[in-house]
């Protein structure tokens, strides 16, 4: 088997996404930024849509839009498509956290989080699908949507009622969309990260009395003794979006260090 000069065995597969175009929502921080950077490194032309786009990775085209604003999402997707010259890959990743039991969050907080985490993905998909269908018609196998879900969708985590419900909806939405668009050549999958080392987790830890001790305790609770990295989640998203996953649709890929699947005996 021969390998090209920039593709050593077992390493990143070079610029295999050259000629493809991608839009990443929430791409200015954490998992989204790592995904936008990896897509760019793999040769795709990438736009980032974020309500706070300052952190969009170098080489990407940044669009400021809030996924709760349907008109802004439509305009933002149109702007990105015009800039990139089309759209093959949508990574719908913008989302926020919420802590508490059902008794802790009032209706307006539920509606605010569901508006971002669930309807945000619906709005973005609605705006992107005509372009993805077009891409699939011209280049079969190239069009995909990958949603950032969470192991909270299926794991039964304490103090995460609202967040888990929002990600449960993302999981069901992903499966339903995969069925609706499979014959159009648009694959739809999601990744389920465990606790990932992003600015979001940093902000949560900063609220603790002793952030360093809290971080060590969080690491210790993971089966692997560490959080998953944003780059590791990005690698899974880029796999699902790539031609290597041409037969993969309606799948949730966990990147959680074994958090959900393993049943470890207490030490
Ligand atoms: P992050 O806070 O580092 O990044 C989120 C990005 O989304 C930010 O750039 C933010 O500006 C953008 N964003 C938020 N609300 C938006 C809105 N209404 N409109 C447009 N952009 C908006 O967070 P992260 O940890 O990288 O999380 C990214 C995704 O991963 C989220 O969907 C989250 O639910 C999911 N996730 C994260 C973890 C984790 O432990 N970090 C675990 C599982 C799932």
From TrEMBL:
Q: Report the InterPro entries cross-referenced here.
A: NAD(P)-bd_dom_sf (IPR036291), Sc_DH/Rdtase_CS (IPR020904), SDR_DHRS6-like (IPR051122), SDR_fam (IPR002347)
An MF annotation (GO) of this entry: oxidoreductase activity
Q: What keywords does the record list, in alphabetical order?
A: Oxidoreductase
The domain of life for this entry's organism is Bacteria
Record flagged with keyword Oxidoreductase: yes
Family as reported in the entry's similarity comment:
Belongs to the short-chain dehydrogenases/reductases (SDR) family.
Which PANTHER family does the record associate with it?
DIHYDROANTICAPSIN 7-DEHYDROGENASE
What protein am I looking at?
NAD(P)-dependent dehydrogenase, short-chain alcohol dehydrogenase family
């Amino acid at each position: 088997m021969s390998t090209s000069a920039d593709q050593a065995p077992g390493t990143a597969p070079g610029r295999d996404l050259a000629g493809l175009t991608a839009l990443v929502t929430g791409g200015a921080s954490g998992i989204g930024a790592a995904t936008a950077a990896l897509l760019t490194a793999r040769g795709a032309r990438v736009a980032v849509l974020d309500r706070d786009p300052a952190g969009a990775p170098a080489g990407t085209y940044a669009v400021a839009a809030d996924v709760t604003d349907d008109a802004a999402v439509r305009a933002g997707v149109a702007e990105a498509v015009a800039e990139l010259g089309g759209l093959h890959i949508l990574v719908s990743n913008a989302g926020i956290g919420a802590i508490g039991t059902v008794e802790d969050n009032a209706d307006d907080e539920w509606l605010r989080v569901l508006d971002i985490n669930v309807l945000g993905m619906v709005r973005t998909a609605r705006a992107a699908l005509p372009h993805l269908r077009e891409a699939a018609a011209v280049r079969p196998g190239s069009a995909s949507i990958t949603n950032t879900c969470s192991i909270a969708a299926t794991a039964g985590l304490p103090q995460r009622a609202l967040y888990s419900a929002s990600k449960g909806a993302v999981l069901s939405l992903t499966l339903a969309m995969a069925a609706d668009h499979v014959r159009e050549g648009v694959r739809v999958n999601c990744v389920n990260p465990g606790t990932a080392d992003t600015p979001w987790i940093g902000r949560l830890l900063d609220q603790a009395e002793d952030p360093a001790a809290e971080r060590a305790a969080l690491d210790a609770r993971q089966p692997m003794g560490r959080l998953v990295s944003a780059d590791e989640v990005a690698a899974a998203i880029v796999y699902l979006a790539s031609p290597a996953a041409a037969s993969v649709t309606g799948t949730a890929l966990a990147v959680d260090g074994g958090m959900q699947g393993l049943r470890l005996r207490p030490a």
